[in-house]
Amino acid sequence: MLTVDAALDAHLEATREARLDSYKAFLRIPSISAIPAHAGDCRAAAAWLAGALSEAGLEHAEVLETGGHPVVYADWLHAPDAPTVLIYGHYDVQPVDPLDLWTSPPFEPVVVGDRMLARGAADDKGQIHAHVMAAAAMLATRGRFPINVKYIFEGEEESSSVHLDAWLTAERDRLRADVAIISDSGFFEGNLPAITLSLRGIMYAQIDVIGTAVDLHSGVYGGAVQNPANALAQIIAALKGPDGRVRIPGFYDDVVPLTEADRFALANLPFDDATYQENLGVPALVGEVGYTTLERRGTRPTLDVNGMWAGFQGEGAKTIIPAHAHAKVSCRLVAGQEPDRIFEAFRDYVDAIAPPGVTTRVELIGGGFPSLTPMDHPATQAAARALEATFGRAPVYIREGGSIPVCASFSTILGLPVILLGITPPDENAHAPNEWMDLGNYETGIRTFARMLDELIDLPR
Amino acid sequence: MLTVDAALDAHLEATREARLDSYKAFLRIPSISAIPAHAGDCRAAAAWLAGALSEAGLEHAEVLETGGHPVVYADWLHAPDAPTVLIYGHYDVQPVDPLDLWTSPPFEPVVVGDRMLARGAADDKGQIHAHVMAAAAMLATRGRFPINVKYIFEGEEESSSVHLDAWLTAERDRLRADVAIISDSGFFEGNLPAITLSLRGIMYAQIDVIGTAVDLHSGVYGGAVQNPANALAQIIAALKGPDGRVRIPGFYDDVVPLTEADRFALANLPFDDATYQENLGVPALVGEVGYTTLERRGTRPTLDVNGMWAGFQGEGAKTIIPAHAHAKVSCRLVAGQEPDRIFEAFRDYVDAIAPPGVTTRVELIGGGFPSLTPMDHPATQAAARALEATFGRAPVYIREGGSIPVCASFSTILGLPVILLGITPPDENAHAPNEWMDLGNYETGIRTFARMLDELIDLPR
Q1: Minimal CA–CA distance to A59: which of A73, A45, A48?
Q2: Three-state secondary-structure class, residue B332
């Protein structure tokens, strides 16, 4: 840990024990949002958090209703000519089963070596606790922030953030800012400081292929009618070419291409195809030609069957032509692509390639926008400077293939650039037994979050 | 009904009431082979049948053990220079559920108009009762048969004839004959007298496509690995071309081509594509180019997915790359094709076309030989003359797409040509509620079966 602000450091050194006690107290609240019996615990965690924000010296610390688990809000808005940052995290946690794989009870936090062990230690209570502690230390040592800050910590991230978009829409004025920082991601392999530049969006659809009202005898009718399962296989096979590219007309039209700098950054990450393949246990890595594995899984759109079913699935033989066949198909989307437009192109193409003799239905099940804040964005660079100043090395830039829905919501509803600045170790067992936080990351992360506020002072408004 | 043998006719007229009583007594025995609780009823039906054969004047009437439900055997072998015919049927019946759709109890036979209504009235107790009555009438009026006759009536046809092949193999000597007549098929649409010339065989296999040990997150891994469900769809789609032809190398090599006479006979059947399509409720009939619907479903091999499954099949969205994907695929086979050879070609082709990044397994689940007795076979022509002499019109020649396993067993184990001579109406509700037999078909059929024995006298031995 580097010394970047002597007063802040001294304060943090002096308050370490009390801070760990506070961290543990927060972790003891079993705020599992997906389990209705824990609704009261979620509310208790929100109240605890609002109290901690208020105690840190932030203003307007409130528990706000959303229709589901509440959002905790607080702000400090006394830097009239400076930018405003919106800081996001979530206080809810994943369920804990299977309980017997935990080495200690998930809601009785313990420090083992340099690790805090508990459900939520990393995802995401550890990260938001670090933000609150950064704010407390800054106000204790300086009495003010260099910029304006707003905090929102939600309670439904682990159960699909169902009420968040409506709440963001309703609270648009209160949440006005220049940039959002989401601390719900982590470091790269080997615990390298990292900034996540992009997340993919998604288009999720179902294809139904309908033949007859009931299954047919495959001997009596085989050869005379289209088989819906064969037809579905034909449709799916035609969606992608042997080059791994999606064949839907217009699919790639709006994709924001990678810059040379993007490709260089990905190429220089410590990542080994052979090890990755071996860990997955597959005979080969495959995907779109012309792109590396990291490019394909983080920066290129995909098309995957998530599920498929038709006819007889039991032991042995049943000789039928299934009456109908179904598939769930999703596309991961990258910057530039819009879920609705991709769905329309998908539906039109499926209709166009469906073989004769069956009826085809294509239905949109869900969608989410991708997000991207470029490496050269001033806020990205501010985050990079904060990481380098505190962790002693420039961050790597990574691209995540999955989605954090709130990230796209911040872009589309609030119109904010989003910086994904997280400090959890890459193998922290989030969503699994024995979740842990590296206490070095936690302590240095507090300094990173504080430094980030200093670095954002020059953000163009 | 035409008068073809005045003495036989007179006898049959005089014994009509007693015969219907006997028919009903046979139908009253609930010989459902698939339900273990009815094992005693199956044995009772066998005993009843052996008694009826013996009463008719046949010799060696016996109930023979098979390891399952028994076979009933009887013979008359006193025409030393004449051919021998083996007559086959089955005394077991289908289950009766759903019981509430029956207009009268399934095992309390009633005559309604010109129909006998009961489970088994047609399939197959009605047909074998007609054979026994034909034998009784012939022996009563002539004291002898023109040729040698052997009867075998099995009790497991409705539950896969599991013990029959081993029994046929063991009893090969006792069953020596020149031709087999199977009476377990029916007339054509509109109740036209019909001879079924061929049945298709089958090759049934399962394809397993294996990716990873567990499902993967489609966001985190999508684009980097092969998706087993997409891969399976590619494999299935590659098995058939847009012309409806199977692409497996060598698949059609051994197919016995249709003769011009075969095609002419099928083309002249009263069959209407538009009505057939409308009844099925499909937007089009599809299949191999260059063949009519009746040719495609009766005389050409097929490839159909019978079932298919992978990944998530529930409501909504689950964003995974399935760990594995599976399909049950079967080919209906026609004369000349052998199930084992077709499986090997299928397996080799699947292995050859499987995309990279997954492991593929192909397993044989079951197979059955096709059967064909040509239209110009002397026994086919004998059956045709018998039908024309009694029903007053030449039969139509049909090809069934399904399989009667015993048919192939008679060919392969006993080396016999097989004539499929059945007299049930085409819409008799076999396997369904309210099964019925047309009593006109039944009475005339008795004369047909008797006449058939006369017509076989010139069969080359």
Answers
A1: A73
A2: strand
Whole-number pLDDT of residue B210: 98
SS3 B362: strand
- CA distance to partner chain B, nearest, from residue A384 (Å): 24
How much helix, strand and coil, in percent to the nearest 5, is found in chain B?
A: 35, 25, 40
Is the CB of B313 less than 8 angstroms away from the CB of A307? yes
Do you know the residue count of chain B? 461
Distance from CA of A142 to the nearest CA of B (A): 42
Q: What's chain A's Rg over C-alpha atoms? A: 25
Q: Where are the alpha helices (DSSP H) in A30-124?
A: 39-56
Q: What are the distances in angstroms from CA A260 to CA A158, A265, A271, A297, B230?
A: 36, 9, 18, 17, 32
Question: How far away is chain A from the Cα of B300, in angstroms, using its nearest Cα?
Answer: 7
Model ipTM value: 0.89
* Contacts with A, B 68-107, CB within 8 Å: none
B242 contacts in chain A (CB < 8 Å): 355
Cα first-last separation, chain A: 31
- Rounded to 10°, the helix A228-239/B228-239 angle is 110
Residue A266 domain flag: no
pLDDT at B4: 79
Q: Provide CB contacts within 8 A for B344, sequence distance 6+.
A: none
Task: Report residue B1's pLDDT band, with 50, 70 and 90 as the boundaries.
Answer: low
Q: Are A314 and A438 contained in the same domain?
A: no
Residue of B188, B230, B371 for testing the chain A interface, max A β-carbons within 10 Å: B230
Which of B311, B343, B368 is the endpoint of a domain? B368
In single-letter form, the type of residue at position A440 comes to G
**Pairwise CB contact (< 8 Å): A218 & B330:** yes
Both tokens of B187, joined, read 């007339």
Residue A130 lies in a domain: yes
> How far is residue A149 CA from its own chain's centroid?
22
Domain assignment present for B291: no
Q: What does the block give as tokens for A289? A: 């030609």
Report yes or no: B220 at the A interface, CB cutoff 8 Å. Answer: yes
* B62: enclosing H helix or E strand: strand B59-64
Do residues A374 and A395 share a domain? yes
- Does residue B150 carry a pLDDT above 60? yes
Q: What is the pLDDT of residues A72-113, one digit of tens each?
A: 999 999 999 999 999 999 999 999 988 999 999 999 999 999
Residues B82 and B225 in one domain: no
pLDDT tens for B312-324 read 999 888 889 999 9
Nearest to A327 by CA among B221, B307, B208, B229: B229
Distance, CA of B307 to CA of A197 (rounded, Å): 43
What is the C-alpha separation between A341 and A362, in angstroms, rounded? 14
Which residue segment(s) compose the domain that A387 sits in?
6-199+370-458
Q: Is B308 on the interface with A (CB under 8 A)?
A: yes
| Distance from C-alpha of B379 to C-alpha of B444, rounded to nearest angstrom | 20
A361 touching B, CB under 8 A? no
Select from B344, B368, B392 the last residue of a domain.
B368
Nearest CA in chain B to A334: B219
A-B CB pairs within 8 A amount to 287
Q: Is the pLDDT of residue A324 over 60?
A: yes
Q: What is the pLDDT of residue A89?
A: 97
